[in-house]
Known about the structure:
Layout: H1 15-43, H2 45-61, H3 63-83, H4 85-115, E1 120-121, E2 124-125, E3 128-129, E4 133-134, E5 137-143, E6 149-154, H5 161-166, H6 168-174, E7 179-184, E8 189-195, E9 218-223, E10 228-231, E11 238-241, H7 248-258, H8 260-265, E12 268-273, E13 288-292, H9 296-320, E14 333-338, H10 341-346, H11 350-366, E15 372-378, H12 383-389, E16 394-397, H13 403-410, E17 431-435, E18 442-447, H14 452-461, H15 471-476
Parallel strand pairs: 11-15, 11-16, 12-13, 12-14, 14-15
Antiparallel strand pairs: 1-4, 2-3, 5-6, 6-8, 7-8, 9-10, 9-18, 16-17, 17-18
Adenosine-5'-triphosphate binds next to helix 7 and strand 18.
Amino acid sequence: MDRSPARPMFDSDDPLSIVLEGIVRLGWALVRAIGAILLAAARNPVPAIIVVGLAIEGYVLGSRFLIWTAIGVLLALITWRLAAPSSFANTAHPRLASIAAAPWYRSRWAKAASRNGLVASDHQFNGRRAEQSRLPRIRRVRVTRAGVHTLQLSLPAGLTPSHVAAQCDGLAHALKCREARVVEDRPGRVFLELHRRDVLAPVIRPSPPKGQVDLAAVPVGRHEDGEVWYMRLLGTHVLVAGATGAGKGSVLWSLLNGAAPAIASGSLEVWAIDPKGGMELRPGLPLFARFEDGSAEQMCLTLEHLVTLKDVRARELAELGARTHAATPASPHILLVVDELATLTAFAERTIVRRIEQALGLLLTQGRACGITVLAAVQDPGKDVVVWRDLFPTRIAMRLDNPIQVDMVLGEGARDLGATADHISELTPGVAYVRVEGTRTQRRVRASYLTDADIAELAVRSPRPTPVRLAAAAAVEGGEVA
Ligand SMILES: Nc1ncnc2c1ncn2[C@@H]1O[C@H](COP(=O)(O)OP(=O)(O)OP(=O)(O)O)[C@@H](O)[C@H]1O
């Protein structure tokens, strides 16, 4: 659209030409206005139908009926709010809030975007200086049930989601919200999420046990948008990184709580290694098929047993011509939990360290197809741990000490895209950033919190069904079965 200063269409001072030009310009402005109204109606069909309905009613029945209609609608909404507050909060409130918020954001957007430098300009075009610049355009404003305001933006050529992400701080201040974050949409579009309050501030209670659990989506907490945070266990390994007190334990216990029906039915077997002397994991002993909190050598043996089991499974799969393991009670999916990866090798002799590293490397590189998932927690994602990082497809960044650690955990550029794990408050343990599978999008989440009593109840409710049935492991350890 050319917004350059008006140039005369007719090169003449003839009054008739001037009048004709005025008529053409007026006609064109009218066509554009009608087009804009139709486009707005197509994008917002419900408000458009309401406005058209009210206009017809006002025309046919007179303005008094319009007033009565408005009063009727207001009373109906108040009755709905009082009689069924949760249905109102889930259905009507987000829509009404979206309608109310849209004009506010549209009126402030141009100033907020241009003052934060979100402008695409043609510096030179065909040897001429460009005459215009463009801002991202708001396509839609939506308020979610959790109260997150989301602006869907169209990006002009020359701007990318990274440009918007880099200006999140400035946009948050300009649009009077606590935090702004970018979520990628399709090419040329992004969602700008505006968080007015921290919806993850209240402690989240664990979800009640379900009859069946899908190991591809185990509930562990809540997303910032109010949805359940599901974690995949099948076909992945999980790295949970966070400073001391960040709440790594709550991710682990929430996962075990969510997966409890599978543990009780025998389709998931949990092997636990607690190098910190069993302080974290020992309360869950009845859940574990194998538990080790002794010497580094014993922990090393446990890892090597699992490697042997992996080899047995790999051979069986090869004989069957299958490429991935299907969990059954006879051959369950195995979750190996290591509570502190760095401590595992910190105080061990060099030969043990080498054996541990070799076993862990084999499990991380070959375990997934054989139905083995490694979940490891680390306090410091420094040099020692970062070598393993790329072998963990699922990574969770809890409260970390500095921005460099955020990129160490989530990958290069994650901090710039909005994963501000170094800003997580010490008052909100369990809060973390996770990457959405298959995308560069990061989401803020919080794990549910199981008290000591909840953990004790979980251990009684969902113990493992039988002792470990690992012939291969027994062979390595001379017949010993945990
Ligand atoms: N999801 C949560 N919601 C609310 N409070 C939590 C949550 N997770 C942990 N906490 C609180 O924070 C404290 C520290 O949590 P936790 O021990 O799990 O941290 P950690 O990261 O495992 O620390 P460390 O590495 O030192 O063991 C807990 O005692 C608990 O009071």
